[in-house]
């Protein structure tokens, strides 16, 4: 399966979308369809806005998936994640919304997302969502983000 590269944001100057609704995620064919492997994206500087106070929220997102026919194109994913910068939503909504959007686009065999949020009001809120049990035999490393500890 081939893809028309001219339809991708990759290789073209692309402005940061103003909101997740305006952002476009691109997918490309998986050259190893049928092979069980884990693809991981880590966004260590994710930001959104608290919908109540308008203050910025910061977190680390870790996205793991077992690709099927499609892979997410990384430039479009970066633009999509950065489009949350001025988006007002609670931690739970941001994390699960991103996960559901990627599952809808990619139709992976398995998917999980971990949202490790920095404290708001003194309480960290970590959010985890997955599509089911990971397939047997899939190497599933720890997401590598330690639980929050006060300094």
UniProtKB/TrEMBL annotation:
Cellular localisation: Cytoplasm
Annotated family: Belongs to the GTP cyclohydrolase I family. QueF type 1 subfamily.
Pfam family, one: QueF
EC number(s) recorded for this UniProt protein: 1.7.1.13
Pathway recorded for this protein: tRNA modification; tRNA-queuosine biosynthesis
One term under GO cellular component: cytoplasm
Record's protein name: NADPH-dependent 7-cyano-7-deazaguanine reductase
One Gene Ontology term of the molecular function aspect: preQ1 synthase activity
Active site feature: 50 (thioimide intermediate), 57 (proton donor)
Catalysed reactions listed for this entry: 7-aminomethyl-7-carbaguanine + 2 NADP(+) = 7-cyano-7-carbaguanine + 2 NADPH + 3 H(+)
Keyword Translocase: no
Keywords for this protein: Cytoplasm, NADP, Oxidoreductase, Queuosine biosynthesis
Top-level taxon of origin: Bacteria
Biological role stated in the UniProt entry: Catalyzes the NADPH-dependent reduction of 7-cyano-7-deazaguanine (preQ0) to 7-aminomethyl-7-deazaguanine (preQ1).
Biological process (GO), any one: tRNA queuosine(34) biosynthetic process
Binding site for substrate: 72-74, 91-92
InterPro entries, per database record: GTP-CH-I_C/QueF, NADPH_dep_7-cyano-7-deazaG_red, QueF, QueF_type1
């Amino acid at each position: 399966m081939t893809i028309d590269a001219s339809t991708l944001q990759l290789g073209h100057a692309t402005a940061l979308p103003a909101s997740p609704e305006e952002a476009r995620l691109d997918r490309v064919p998986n050259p190893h369809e049928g092979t069980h492997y884990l693809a991981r994206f880590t966004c260590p500087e994710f930001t959104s806005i608290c919908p109540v106070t308008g203050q910025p929220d910061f977190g680390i997102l870790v996205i793991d998936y077992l690709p099927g026919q499609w892979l997410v194109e990384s430039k479009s994913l970066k633009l999509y994640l950065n489009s949350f910068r001025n988006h007002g939503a609670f931690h739970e909504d941001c994390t699960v919304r991103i996960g559901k959007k990627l599952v809808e686009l990619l139709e992976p065999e398995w998917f999980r997302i971990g949202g490790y949020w920095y404290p708001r009001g003194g309480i960290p809120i970590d959010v985890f969502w997955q599509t089911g049990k990971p397939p047997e035999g899939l190497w599933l490393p720890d997401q590598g983000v330690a639980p929050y500890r006060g300094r």
